[in-house]
Amino acid sequence: LxxxxxxxxxxxxxxxxxxxxxxxxxxxxxxxxxxxHVRASDLIAEPEHRVEAMLQRAGLVxxxxxxxxxxLRGFHSDGGGGGGxxxxxxxxxxxxxxxxxxMRCGLIVYSTTVLIVTLTILSFYLPAMIYHVRSTNxxxxxxxxYSTTLHGHYSLPAALGGLPAxxxxxxxxxxxxxxxxxxxxxxxxxxxxxxxDWIMELALRNKLMYATLHDYKTWxxxxxxxxxxxxxxxxxIPLLYVLMHPESPVTQGVEWLLWMxxxxxxxxxxxxxxxxxxxxxxxxxxxxxxxxxxxxxNDIQGLNTGVFLLRKCEWSRQLMAEVAALATPxxxxxxxxxxxxxxxxxxxWVLHSQAERWKDRVQLERNFTLNGNWMDYAKKWVPGKPxxxxxxxxxxxxxxxxxxxxxxxxxxxxxxxxxxxxxxR
Length: 425
Known about the structure:
Blueprint: H1 3-22, H2 26-35, H3 40-45, H4 48-58, H5 62-77, H6 88-149, E1 180-185, H7 196-213, E2 217-221, H8 236-243, E3 256-260, E4 264-266, H9 275-281, E5 285-289, H10 291-296, E6 303-311, H11 314-324, H12 329-335, H13 343-353, H14 355-358, E7 362-365, E8 372-373, H15 374-377, E9 387-392, E10 395-397, E11 401-403, E12 419-420, E13 423-424
Parallel strand pairs: 1-2, 1-3, 5-7, 8-11
Antiparallel strand pairs: 3-6, 4-11, 5-6, 9-10, 12-13
Helix pairs in contact: 1-5, 1-6, 4-5, 8-11, 11-13
């Protein structure tokens, strides 16, 4: 053959190798390159940016340009620019043999990454789901047993949100107990400390014992009622709001809801709050507090939402709605300390800013210790005695309730350093 014909054959074979390596539509690209007088040897000889410009002028799409340029990099690394028709098949075979392991390694890395990400996501949600399903099934199968054993003194909610078997609440034995429901909540996941679950169980038993002694109904919650800005301590607000609904089947006949944080325990088991006096005075909310610090100073420590008594009525539902309205981050930043405002600060703000609306039906209780701080009573207890070894705030009587605020016995850390896994400091 004459030399020009041989050169054309070489160019054709070389272009076939490039397009095959790039894995693009060869017929259309050959036509475009032929119309633009772009040869395979030019693609190999020119630098990468010049090759991209040539291919763009020829009318190739961006995806095909990228694939061809990537294939040409392999030609450059193999010295493919000086090879002819005889050397092209060997270079193509060598590049193909090296490319296959690279692709397999890429697939292995990609699959491993997807697996790791999936397992990481499941590690966050799977334990909670398993625990929730197991605990729900456990409560469903044991709800009837609990009600029968305790003779209706308290009722655990079937499946965290329904009536016990039979469709009706157990009938209370005493008229005073029928008026009150003790409400508490704790996290659904196991505690992270070594003895956290045991301590939380003791605290729950203490509440159920008090409710049984005084014929109170109970509602023990482990669900997050609202996921919108009402997490952690805020969760009590929507929970109480729902329980106070006039058509709620679980609170039919209930007049008062006694809220107890999970870290609060009853210490005077014989004491009962003066409900008749609150009825005569028209009180709807009973909570420990200092009127000067709440209504005048707007002090977040002027009251304590760890324990409070709330009448089941529309007034109370509206109060809970006002508190929940302050849960948005933007409002927290405006009225809180750098945005760190919890439900206690929100209630303080509502009572302070709208005192004329709420004050007359709020009892900031100071006649007895509704909610004592455990640090004030540490090492002052006398076992079996109703009196303290040393008086607290001038009173040597044991408090009605003591709250272990800040200890974080379930989560294993403390803001004030007063608790560690070995016990109190």
